[in-house]
Amino acid sequence: MKRNTVLIFDLDDTLYQKHGVVNEDYSGIERIKLYPGAREILTQFKSRFKLVLVTKGDTIIQNKKIDLLKIRKLFDEILICTLPQEKKSCFIKIKKEFTGSRFIVIGDKFGEESREGNELEMI
To answer: Which terminus of the chain has fewer Cβ atoms in its 10 Å neighbourhood, N or C?
Structure first.
């Protein structure tokens, strides 16, 4: 049985390097690769925690990245926000869905993921 902890991951620049690889027009998307060790860590975490991916961007492009990285099956749930302000709404949805759980947000931007998570009493 999984512990009552939900790990909420960001995608871009958290699980793979977007900056300097994928351009504004999304050229370069075919070159993305998970950071070394990321798949192994996610696989180990999946056996112990609930894993949720929350990412922001165009739904088609974000789904393409998830499929190129072959990580879809590693997550219990995937939420794609099309607007920046929707990310907090996604966190609220997760909190309601997994009531009574402990939440840990893992991202690359302190100003986005961490701030919003902290506002909702997530680590």
So the answer is: N
